[in-house]
Known about the structure:
This protein folds into two domains: 1-100, no CATH class; 104-233, no CATH class. Helix content is 71%, strand content 0%. It is built from nine helices and no strands. Helix 2 (17-38) packs parallel to helix 9 (201-227) and helix 7 (154-174) runs antiparallel to helix 8. The chain crosses the membrane at residues 15-36, 43-62, 68-85, 112-132, 152-174, 181-198, 204-221.
Amino acid sequence: MAELLNWLFGQYADYSTTFIVLELIAVFFGVASVLLASRTNILVFPIGLISTAIFVYLLWKWQLFGDMFINAYYTVMSLYGWINWSKNKKNQPIETHESNNVRIEHLHAGDVPILSALAIATMSFVALIYYFRPVINNGFSFDGAVLGVHLFTWVDYTDMLTTALFLMAMWLMASRKIEHWILWIIADAISVPLYFYKGFTFTALQYVVFTLIAIWAYYEWQRRYRIQPRAAYA
């Protein structure tokens, strides 16, 4: 048991108390935001902003630039989603205008080109960051830095995949599409062992919770879709 606990939490012995507290706060608000999203509660966005802003700072300090980019994107898309969901609520009929009532939709064929472009752009951007990682880690100096795709590890390639999945999921979520939960489930499940490997146990446990909530939320959004009024609102 002692060896297991050391494997899970041993890396935190070298962390400052501030970093540990910030990670725990970010995890708490992250889980809260996913629970709010499952209930189509618009507070998902302001609560989520707290989590993503903290993770942007932590991931920059940890030099996990792919993950940092994800959370920076989350921050921007949370603002977009907040506006989108707010406008959608205003367009609801009075009799269905509840505090957490936001009209949800299924994925449309017209969304696929946008998702494809987003995935390609995301993976290319993250690959570029990792290609120049030796320069970034060298204080943004090319002196003595060795570049090449051959330096990529399986973690880097996995980061590219999960980054693309997360960004597509966030865009679909901001657009109120049910299928975003499927992408969350896949990306969250992949992220669990990935963050354990990286040594961020609290964040890995967060993704375990995220995966379970996302599975339940997918069916919950399906239920809400079936019972919502059939009239369409932009």
